[in-house]
Amino acid sequence: MTMAAERMKNEPRIEPKEILEGIVEWIEIESPSHDAKAVNVMVDKVEGQFRDLGLDLERTPGRDGFGDILEAKTPAGWSTGQGKGILVLAHLDTVHPLGMKEKELKIRREGDSVFGPGIYDMKSGGYIAYYALRHLIRQGKKTRLPVTFLFIPEEEVGSPTSRARIEEAAKGHKYALVMEPGRDGDKVVTSRKGVGRFTLTARGRAAHAGVRHEDGRSAILEIARQIVRIEEKTDYARGITCNVGLIRGGSGVNVTPAECSIDVDLRVPSMQLAEEMTHWFLNLEPIGKEVELIVEGGMNRPPYQKDAGITDLFQKAQAIYREIGKELNDVPLTGGGSDGNFTAALGIPTLDGLGADGKGAHAVTEQIYYSSLEPRTYLCARLLETLE
Ligand SMILES: [Zn+2]
What pLDDT is attached to residue 55? Predict the structure, then answer.
């Protein structure tokens, strides 16, 4: 064997088998959002792996019952360029309760599909980003821009304890790469609807349903009328959806209900509609007489709209994909929110859905496609390497 061939043989490669082994180690550690202890075992794992790569680490203790936030930065002098760098976002929590890996979501491979809790949303994505950086380091390559990885402990419940941290980090970076699940058929995400959450509480008056029915003021009746009004605001043509997803109320079958409340999920495609709908919700008035209506809430995630900066970043990603003979597309506006909504709303060019292809997010059919691991890792590695 010639020297050149020898060098070729030892050249580090993106090995899908090796990537999958790493992903399986991550999904073996189950990490439901509300279980801080479990999430922190996952944070320990990732922290150790990034420490081994020589990155500067900062771990912020969790609060309000959530896990820790982990930041890993390429050290000073590691990149060839200076200034604002690349922010890579991933969340380490999953929607699945503990024990799923032994039950409905057994970790297993069936043909091209690999199943497991949180494998698609989004441990594969987080691991792909880690592997991509490791791949560059193994090749002795540097990035042009500094890179910051931010691992979030509670994205699946709306990132209540990390939103401010994400926004602060975004302001100090030039680009945001979000490792959320890729979309079937080589697609990434370049826009997302904004998400609003509202709680409506009606207060009526309790009375004996048989003896003093006329004295009662039904909070359930009030909320029932409000539900119809709210659901009718759904307008598919304008991209607005209103979903009354939860209802609570009443104290007994023979008592006129004094209290009833609902939780509403709102999705809107633009900032203008976010403002319009928020205003509408917060100004809802009671329909019935002698009942009180209290409305709380607002936008939880602002809309993520495809602007010129995002289009440009997406085109760079498309050019990279063409290097391996593949065509990258983006999905039409999706209703699902992510932490990418926060960075995009601040005007930071954001590319989302960079994780593995697959399907069944949040479901017992959750799976990734093994064949997507190599191209997706290549895309991430080359974005880190070439963005400037
Ligand atoms: Zn996710």
Answer: 97
The rounded Å distance from CA 349 to ligand 1 centre is 19
- Going from the Cα of 310 to the center of ligand 1, the distance in angstroms, rounded, reads 20
Instruction: Read off the pLDDT of residues 52-103 as tens digits, 9 standing for 90 and up.
Output: 999 999 999 999 999 999 999 999 888 888 889 999 999 999 999 999 999 9
- Name the amino acid, one letter, at 137: I
pLDDT bin (cut points 50, 70, 90) of residue 226 is very high
**In this model, does residue 1 exceed pLDDT 50?**
no
What is the distance in A from the centroid of ligand 1 to the CA of 114?
17
Q: How far is the CA of 227 from the centre of ligand 1 (A)?
A: 29
Percentage of the chain surpassing pLDDT 90? 92
CA 318 to centroid of ligand 1, rounded, Å: 23
Cα dihedral: 321, 326, 327, 331 (round 10)? -80
Measured in Å, residue 80 CA sits from the centre of ligand 1 at 32
377 CA distance to ligand 1 middle (Å): 18
